[in-house]
Design a protein that fits this description.
Lyase 2-enoyl-coa Hydratase, Chain  A, domain 2; 10 helices; 2-enoyl-CoA Hydratase, Chain A, domain 1; 38% helix; single chain; globular; six-stranded mixed beta sheet; alpha/beta
Length: 297
């Protein structure tokens, strides 16, 4: 795993309990590349490995969040068999195997993150710039942000697992409209459609995101937050509430007997801030991750 000093196209910083991943190609409006994807994945690895990090903010350097895939290769940009393609084929790939979408490699990594992720969308977020934010838990936007699910307008289809994420975030009708029109729309429409939580003046965006991240870090036990994040996301695909009941039952039983549960109750009764002792790297319950257990019932 590369360290943050080796990053070229992202910047990784930690301030207290909050890590910030900044897309750092401002001269190209932070257009997305395979290098950026690998470095973002590595930055999330750093955040997950650091128990001092309680929340992650993702933002962009300069006046853009991410203008989408770098189209410098012209018409061959999305042709995985072209030497100039931005798509990344696996070693030894051959038909009928298809190269994995490199945007999907990022969104699936974000989905697996053990820390809450907040997007601070400071400018245009188009294509992968929009879809990379979908597995993030909370999205804030500046008043000059713009969004676009423009894939059909480029002759391709939505990527980064957005056909799964987008309807779950905004509903199927809104998702279809945005993807089929391929239009770029303002932050106000994103707010009305439920894509973003709130809109802020540009100079207030990062402070607002940091304040929200600090609220999570201060109020909530880190192991509980990790479990909550995975439980809510994964239950979006559940076929029956019984699936949630099974996980809830394990969760309530195991966390209810934990040191953090005792501390949380006593802190409330004694009217003081809780001092959480359990950490996601070492103290997750034995049934986590339940989705990887074929015998899970």
């Amino acid at each position: 795993m590369p360290g943050q000093d080796a990053f070229v196209e992202v910047r990784y910083t930690v301030d207290g309990a909050v890590a910030t991943i900044t897309l750092n190609r401002p001269e190209r409006l932070n257009a997305f590349t395979t290098t950026m994807q690998r470095e973002m994945n590595a930055a999330f690895d750093l955040a997950d490995a650091d128990d001092g990090v309680r929340a992650v903010i993702v933002t962009g350097e300069g006046r853009g969040f991410c203008a989408g895939a770098d189209l410098g290769a012209g018409g061959e940009t999305f042709d995985a068999e072209s030497p100039a393609a931005t798509a990344e084929a696996p070693v030894g790939a051959a038909p009928p195997h298809y190269p994995r979408d490199f945007g999907g490699k990022l969104t699936l990594r974000i989905f697996e993150c053990t820390k809450p992720v907040i997007a601070a969308i400071n400018g245009p977020a188009v294509g992968i710039g929009a879809t990379m934010t979908l597995p993030m838990d909370i999205r804030l936007a500046s008043d000059n942000a713009r969004f676009g699910f423009v894939f059909a307008g480029r002759g391709i289809v939505p990527e980064a697992a957005s056909s799964w994420f987008l309807p779950r975030v905004v509903g199927i009708n809104r998702a279809l409209e945005w993807c089929m029109t391929a239009r770029v729309f303002p932050a106000a429409e994103a707010l009305a459609g439920g894509l973003v939580r709130s809109i802020h003046p540009a100079d207030e965006l990062l402070p607002a995101a940091h304040s929200l991240a600090e609220e999570i870090a201060t109020n909530a036990a880190p192991v509980s937050v990790t479990l909550v994040r995975q439980m809510l996301w994964r239950m979006l695909g559940a076929g029956h509430p019984m699936e949630a009941h099974k996980v809830d039952s394990r969760g309530v039983y195991s966390t209810g007997r934990s040191a953090d549960a005792r501390e949380g109750v006593m802190a409330f009764l004694e009217k003081r801030a809780a001092q959480w002792s359990m950490r996601p790297s070492t103290d997750m319950p034995e049934w986590y991750p339940w989705w990887d257990d074929p015998a899970y019932e």
